[in-house]
Amino acid sequence: MFSGVIQNQAGDFSGFNPISTQEYVVLVKGVGQSVPFWIGDKLMETISSRLAYQYFIDVRGGFMSSVSPANVTGGGPSRDGGGQTLEATFEGLFYASNPALFDRWNKELRLYYSQRMYPVIPPDDNAEDNPNEEPGERDAKTKEWRKMPDLIKLILWHAEFAYKNISYNGRSGGGYEDWLSYDDVRTYGYKGHPRQSFDYQNMTDQLAAVCAFYHSFLKPYLPYETYKKYREACLLRWETYDRHKEVRYWVDSKKWIDDGFREFNEQGNAFGQGLLRNLLMYECERNEKDGNPDKFLKYAQDCAADIIKNWNFDNEWHTWAMRNAEHITPQALALFAMMYPEKCPAGTKEKLAAWRDYIFKRTNNLWNYRTHSDTEWAHRKSKEVGTVCGLGGSMFAVADVLKDSKLRAIGWSQVDFVFGCNPPGTHLSHKSPTRVALNGYWKGVEKGWPFQYPHGTGELGYTRGYYGWLPH
After folding, report:
1. Residues near 416 by Cβ (< 8 Å), separated by ≥ 6?
2. Which of 301, 315, 397, 392 is CA-nearest to residue 347?
3. pLDDT beyond 80 at 3
């Protein structure tokens, strides 16, 4: 029995640290009893982390890294994505957060005739390593490939996709023949310049990330000659592609949710993306004998100064309207402060503290839900789940820099919100029988979102680890 006091409609369970794995309930005299819940150790690592990258396995547009972007709705490696989605960048940061966890899983992605990488669903982690099971996995070269962590295989797949499409300028859609109207929904380029329908410039960002990761953890897996051509591709195009700065007014959208030419957009130029890519390129160059790290450090510092000066929390296009890319701004600035605090521009911590205060103001409610304004809780047209799922990570990053336990606690509230501590009391993703059968749903979650959007938003309904089916 654990007793506590409820204040402002919230109970404090900080002192409750049970050893037992049995279910518990909260009983409030005169109010009633909560739904049963259980408390476990390392829940994020055991029930969520693998699903996070399995999602990116399932949404790939093809088994080969050379797949044409014209065959993927959105013009990128992932369905409902595009050249802007930066898979290799965030998969790499994800791996770096806990290599020992991801090194455990290497039985899922298999190789068929040298390039066709496909998943075994559900994977059998206890399966014996059979070198004769697949053509393409039988020679000495692929013997080591079989031992590679699946997340590393996925990073390298996305890196090669980026390299092969770094100069592509073709259609954006066409994967679904009856979706031809998807073409030109978003086009790329500055005002007054020729339009392009594929954002190949963003492929450079992913290669820069992989070049940085090479010196951290990819060296055992990525051949030097491959790394060398990735680095050369970045150096050749960096300034030409405007990778040295925060890019503004780049995306022209005809989609209802971000119609028009916006200063920043989730699909191509998020605020902070310039800082992130230059910080990663600096990390690469400082490890090279012939590198030019000072140039990229200056670019990163200029981007950080841009954020410090111009990041406006009252501007919706600097925060929640960027939707799935909103997390990049605080995380990029926080990452700079974590890695090289002595090299950050003046005002870095102060800007992060100002963002923290904005979060405190906007999460002052029962669920610690970040509201959009004093009068508006959510998007006027769409309940965008991506901002909810990604916001906690930004809070954790900034809390680490500021050593702020309150902000960290609110970050965990975002996780709680996703898993059911919200007004309807359900997980934010529909619990479909198909995804349960695929081991693609969160273990232990009893209630998913009650309504099912046909096939899932963006035709993603049968992908593992997919958050969707919320009202749109």
Report:
1. none
2. 301
3. yes
